[in-house]
DNA sequence: AGCATAAATAATAA
DNA sequence: TTATTATTTATGCT
């Protein structure tokens, strides 16, 4: 449409201040920290050890990777992209598959130096390209990314009191229904299946949150 | 600890590219979009109308506000702060209460120009200060944000047995008092209104929890 | 005016 | 990877 010429806003670029370790930086990293999967150390763990900033045999600059990861996140966010979107877009343009989890792990540096080293240039290139398209307009970016242009957030469902009652009774019987069961409940209540699934997720969440002991003193 | 001199990373500041409308920009905004609350138009709606970039009577520069809102979000994120944190911190340092919802709505420009105009300088000032502390280290930022003892973290209220008795008797009569009633109870007991409100919340939770069946049951 | 909670996103478990 | 939990954001409501 004739979106007006508005897009040439010439907004002053935001300069992000230097970031002292937004990540938790695992300061007192010691013997107590088990490396979950096998015994290959992760970037996020190695990088905090001054001696090993450059991983010996590989010649990998961990500090550089850490910085990039941090910048990557900021740049991703300022493009308004999610990890999922990046993963999907990469999967489409680059060779292998990149899941949301993969992007997440890169940003958190929860990967081996080798993987990081391999992934970094891919992300770097892709991100630069995304930023380039973004210059030309949000629409182009979305096209490049591939997702439908800005899918809208689903309207918030409101359940009827009756429905909630039924849901709660199911929940009391079983807080973790199978996909099958969810489908059935959804049909019975005539709500969207996904909506019902999310309801159970959130209900479990809420329960967990509220089941903490309460703050105020007991009236002795 | 002897965190090494690492912190002086002199990371090259990230320059955020100009952002053509990350927000959904409500492109096909037409008769179908009802303005939820009354008929006062929101910034996000007004700003897309070229003619009205400056709100007439008020002299409010909507375009400026839109830009600020966008930058605010990016800067908030690059500080690693959530809307909730900002809201809480503002509530602590500035006068009135700022909920997570309020921050959310500001960022989405889902507020009236007048409110936005009022909120903007507050956010601007606060954010600049937060960035300043962040320069000095993540720890300082968290202290600034997170109600450190130096700031006025609200002291934990302890109710007298008498007060609790009164509260409980009110609770038995009505577990969900209106705002009006809460105010009155608070005045009667000479406690802060908010404290009383929270007491009722917590009381309801407690009740709910104690009467709960063990939930995470295995689906058979 | 802001709470309660639905929906979306990020992080972790499997 | 895919499945689920945990966290954050957004919105219907009154």
Keywords:
homodimer; 220 residues; disordered N terminus; DNA-binding
Write the layout of secondary structure elements.
The structure is a homodimer.
Chain A lengths: L14 E2 L26 H4 L7 E2 L4 E2 H17 L4 H11 L6 H8 L5 H23 L2 H8 L15 H13 L5 H11 L3 H18 L10
Antiparallel strand pairs in A: 2-3
Helix pairs in contact in A: 2-5, 3-4, 5-6, 8-9
The structure holds a DNA duplex (14 and 14 nucleotides).
Describe the structure.
The structure is a homodimer of 220-residue chains. Chain A is elongated, with a radius of gyration of 23 Å. Chain A is built from 9 helices and 3 strands. In chain A, a hairpin with a 4-residue loop joins β2 (54-55) and β3. The first copy, chain A, is mainly α and 220 residues long. The first copy, chain A, has a two-stranded antiparallel ribbon with strand order 2-3. Chain A has helices spanning 43-46, 62-78, 83-93, 100-107, 113-135, 138-145, 161-173, 179-189, 193-210; strands spanning 15-16, 54-55, 60-61. The model of chain A is unreliable at 1-38 and 212-220 (pLDDT under 50). The termini of chain A are far apart. At the A-B interface, β1, α2, α5 and α7 of A face β1, α2, α5, α7 and α9 of B. The first copy, chain A, binds a DNA duplex (14 and 14 nucleotides) through residues 82-84, 97, 99-105, 107-108, 110, 153-159, 176, 195, 198-199, 201-202, 204-206, 208.
């Amino acid at each position: 449409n004739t979106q007006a010429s508005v897009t040439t806003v010439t907004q002053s670029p935001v300069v992000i201040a230097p970031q002292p370790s937004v990540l938790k930086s695992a300061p007192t990293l010691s013997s107590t920290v088990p490396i979950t999967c096998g015994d290959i150390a992760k970037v996020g763990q190695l990088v905090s050890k001054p001696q090993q900033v450059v991983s010996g045999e590989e010649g990998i600059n961990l500090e550089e990777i850490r910085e990039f990861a941090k910048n990557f996140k900021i740049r991703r966010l300022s493009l308004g992209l999610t990890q999922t979107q990046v993963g999907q877009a990469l999967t489409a343009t680059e060779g292998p598959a990149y899941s949301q989890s993969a992007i997440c792990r890169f940003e958190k540096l929860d990967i081996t130096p080798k993987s990081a080293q391999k992934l970094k240039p891919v992300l770097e290139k892709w991100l630069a390209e995304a930023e380039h398209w973004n210059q030309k307009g949000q629409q182009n970016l979305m096209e490049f990314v591939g997702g439908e242009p800005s899918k809208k957030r689903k309207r918030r469902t409101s359940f009827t009191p009756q429905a909630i009652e039924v849901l709660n009774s199911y929940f009391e019987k079983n807080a973790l229904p199978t996909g099958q069961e969810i489908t059935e409940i959804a049909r019975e209540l005539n709500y969207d299946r996904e909506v019902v699934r999310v309801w159970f997720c959130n209900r479990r969440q809420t329960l967990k949150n509220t089941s903490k002991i309460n703050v105020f003193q007991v009236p002795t």
